[in-house]
Amino acid sequence: MKLWGGRFSKSTDAAVDDFNSSIRFDSRMYKQDIRGSQAHAKMLGKQGIIPEKDAELIVKTLGEILADIEAGKVEFTIDAEDIHMNIETILIERIGDVGKRLHTGRSRNDQVALDNKLYLRDESEELKSMLEDLQKIILELAEENLETIMPGYTHLQKAQPITFAHHIMAYYEMFSRDLSRLADWRKRMNILPLGSGALAGTTYPLDRAFVAEQLDFDGITRNSIDGVSDRDFICEFAFVLSMVMVHLSRFSEEIILWSSNEFGFVTLDDAYSTGSSIMPQKKNPDVAELARGKSGRVFGSLMGLLTMLKGLPLAYNKDMQEDKEQIFDALDTVKMCLPVFGGMLATMKINKDVMLIGAKGGFTNATDVADYLVKKGLPFRDAHAVVGKMVAYCLDTNKVIDSLSMDEFKVFSELFDEDIYTAISLETCVNLRKIPGGPAMETMKAVIEGYKNK
Ligand code: ARG
Question: Which atom from ligand 1 is nearest to the alpha carbon of 26?
């Protein structure tokens, strides 16, 4: 008979059991479920709600069940519906009536809210360290490329010279924001829902603060209806994951472009590329493409969660069981992408000479030519127009600004002097941009040092 079977006169249809059961996917929360139950049992004993020695036996037996699960000795059944009832059933099988006391003052509704929180909180620690590992790789790559000049783009058209360090440190910032979002998420979600009961709390004198402390929560939820029906923390977590994927996907897109024959800025390591079954010459950036492609399913999870939640009346509804597969898939996807993406970055070859040639074309120093004239007294708008004419002349004559003779410069403005050549060298263009946030080597170096010592 089901744990809740008392009022039923027949058993559920097999198809309904299958449809209703979540054990296929929520079994992964076994550790958190046991941890939560142990804290609950301890508290029940301490409060004299159940005999102290029963509480002790429950805590001990749950520990043994945990060990048996980890040793692969336990088989869950769809008959017991979900992880909560599977574990409770096993407990009762092992210690009979004592086990039946565990669920006192608790509902699966507050139990599942708790397990969800504990599970995501544990996972968030792993996500955090994966993001930090990726940042370390970016930092090292940046340090090695402080002087690697490359073209910076807007509209995917060459704009101004930057360094490769400057470019990839932009991603470091993105992942820092992801980490800060994660820390912020934790602050908001880290309150204990247990004690909310089915929706209206309980008449037992539970010590919620004690349970909160046992389980490392910063406090307790203040409304039992919200306690069991809140899934904001799952949606928010899915958003954090989605933003990570946006960042990985943008980064991937650049790597795909950079590794193309047209760009040639980077060469992916053979260990991080794949071939074609028909074209012998092919070397494809599959890792970056998959990271870009998988972003869609993570965003899909976020949309799925929001949609699942938006029409639900308070408090618990079974729809909420659908929160798990969505967030698990999003989490698994991100956790799969991050390390392999890091490996691809760490092993790719940076083609510095190709980047430099790229920066030399496309008039990336045109702004600096205008700024030169401004420093000699010309208003910026006039300088802009002068340099525009110079660019047109260069395009007609197939020249670059740096290669013009002094006489040619003078045709466009009397203000030009010999010092123009150093003023618009790419090194000058980059290294005069010492402004905080800019690409100058010394500025970027200080930023990197700061992050290394943080
Ligand atoms: N498996 C359920 C879930 O994941 C647990 C809560 C069930 N509560 C209930 N009243 N049926 O949401």
Answer: 4
